[in-house]
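Obj: model holo form, ligand = S-adenosylmethionine.
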Amino acid sequence: MKLLTHNMLTSNIIKGVKNGYPLKISASDVQLIDVDFNPEFITRMIPKINWKVLHEAAQSLGHANDLPAELNAEYEADQEFLKKTHHVLLEVEVQEGDLICPETERKFPISHGIPNMLLKEEEI
Amino acid sequence: MVDQQCQDEKRTIAEALENEHVHKVYDQTAHYFRNARYKAWPKVGHFLNSLEPGSLVADIGCGHGKYLDINKTVFTLGCDRSAPLCSIAQQSGHSVVVSDNLRLPFRDACFDVVISIGVVHHFTTVQRRAQALKELGRVLCPGGRLMVYAWAFEQKHRTVAVGFNFSKRKMFWCRGATNIKSRNPSLLHKRYYHVFREGELGGLIETFIPEMEILESFFDHSNWCVVAQKNGV
Ligand SMILES: C[S@@+](CC[C@H](N)C(=O)[O-])C[C@H]1O[C@@H](n2cnc3c(N)ncnc32)[C@H](O)[C@@H]1O
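Output (holo structure tokens):
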């Protein structure tokens, strides 16, 4: 699971859960993969993501490095910044672990890089 | 109270039916898709290739993932109820999440584009088909576009299961869509399909997702296709 995917996931599909975002990540295996860097793609992706959530997720996995906590207004021209963003969004992969609902602590397993967000009958 | 009981009972039947005749069937046949090269339908491919670079796309009911890497300039997230199919897609290098179209685990308005190719026909009641479509609309951002394909009634070949009679609790099968009485018990994996009549898919979208405007409807590969856009910029 990439942190770009994590940025969109919520557990508010569980019956009664109001605030399911962001999900906490508990990872036992994180891998770094190589993805071609495309500055235009990253520039267009930034406005669509929740920056604070991305930063915190990267930090919780120990991969934030010196990614700024706040978005700088002139990020488009900042290649170094775009590269760091590219890395945390696309190259950090959680292979094994859990996504944890912030309200109920319900765990959704991540196995072989795939989060399983299916609910049980009584959670619907 | 009685109404609620009826609803609950209907939901339980619908779930059991979809479990047996949709989810199990896909899970059991998933291995056929390993290393398979199925061709993308050209109109779906064309739609995906026309998207703006940097678009965030969700393919809901992505199966083994044949539409996940058509356009390399966008990010496409696949989502399917079948864990074995998701795993095949993931092994081809795609990003996938196991989840249910009826309850998508994504925040509101986070995707620029959503596609649903051959999925909503697997829901056994009109309420569930509507709920599945509503979820697709919910996760779309204002101005975002939706492409849906679903099996058409108006087609000649192929053996499909067409219906479930809730009062008799029986499924009926047909060869082609016109003769609903003929059965084919030799079929190993019987999948449930609802076949859509002309205008039905667009009608559901108009009724249940009023914030969507239909841009295009057409018949393609024995399916009805609707392309719609969510209001706002
Ligand atoms: C006909 S296949 C289409 C796969 C892919 N869209 C394609 O065109 O190759 C239908 C897919 O819908 C999935 N599906 C069925 N019910 C679903 C549900 N409730 N939620 C998510 N996916 C579902 C199945 O697992 C299967 O992969």
